[in-house]
Amino acid sequence: xxxxxxxxxxxxxxxxxxxxxxxxxxxxxxxxxxxxxxxxxxxxxxxxxxxxxxxxxxxxxxxxxxxxxxxxxxxxxxxxxxxxxxxxxxxxxxxxxxxxxxxxxxxxxxxxxxxxxxxxxxxxxxxxxxxxxxxxxxxxxxxxxxxx
Length: 148
Hints:
Structural class: mainly alpha
Shape: globular
Distance between the termini: 46 Å
Strand content: under 5%
Radius of gyration: 18 Å
Order of helices and strands: HHHHHHH
Mean pLDDT: 90
Largest sheet: none
Helix content: over 70%
Low-confidence stretches: none
Number of strands: 0
């Protein structure tokens, strides 16, 4: 079953359950994927589709960060959306796991801890662990490891 088929199935179930938030989130993800397929004039692979889920997660987290603390209802709704989106992503790596992978990668590629190698490390980490971590976390940890 393709990722898009799974989304369609989940959307139908959420509509039957009258879960408006879940239905809305799934619809948004589906429309982003459908638009990408239309623009690229081909069907996206499951891995490519996950990139759009990751992008939606990032946008929703950014939106949550911009909501004032006193707007608890809006923050709760944004957090609920984040929880739903995360269900469609592979298990995310913890900061400790990312740090261990960065150190391992530095040894594997024989990279010295200097600022000019930061871009290479980030690019390699994101390509090897696509969908399992985000650029913000990798950037933070690579910066810490290089700064030692």
